[in-house]
Write a structure and sequence with these properties.
Strands 1-2-4-3 form a four-stranded antiparallel sheet, with helices on one face. The protein has a two-stranded antiparallel ribbon with strand order 5-6. The protein has 226 residues and is of the alpha+beta class. The protein is elongated, with a radius of gyration of 22 Å. The chain is built from four helices and six strands. The protein has two domains: 142 residues, Flavocytochrome C3, Chain A, domain 1, CATH 3.90.700.10; 54 residues, no CATH class. The model has no long low-confidence stretch (mean pLDDT 91).
Amino acid sequence: MSAPEYGDYEVLDNFQKHSYPWGIMVNTDGNRFVDEGEDLRNHTYVKFGREIMKQPNRTAIQIFDQKTIPLLRDEYRIRQVTKVSGNTIAELAQELEINASALTKTIDEFNAACKPGKFNPSILDGVATTGLNPNKTNWALPIDEPPFEAFITTTGVTFTFGGLKVDDKGSVLDNNDRSISGLFAAGELVGGLFYENYPGGSGLMAGAVYGKIAGENAASHAVGNS
């Protein structure tokens, strides 16, 4: 429904859809399931991926109106995107092949719960809903300016949190926490750095730091044993 059968080296990470803080996300039952405005997207896309995996069909539908569609990242405009449009929420639901009454109820309740405030996509603006479960705590604008657009999404894997255990020299440790002579690791091979969530870009930084450390120590080891 929302993902290709295999990856595409031309599209690469443009398959990601990270503008969800400006709209709402619902599952295929038409219900919201996360606080889309909990934080900036770099701090939520990993943990939200876990929540999407719990939803029917492992699918999330991101919905926007004309107030926020201009803010969407370029990745929403690629040819391979899975998108539908509608002039009403019922029409949008029909195109999505989900329950129109449920989606209309969700969006009507969301719109009624939105409180006035100064929308600012650059900061945690505090423009929130009240009385919902879950509430949206930032960037909560009513979905009320058609035509509406919905993007069907699922999850992907960047890297696993598990991996080889290393010491502060980048040396791989055995099951007894003893350094294995001549074996070093860095980057996505290394485990134990992240749990539950990670901020975007920190995996690259960890790779750069441990790459330098492990590389220097591997070179020293090689020279010392040559």
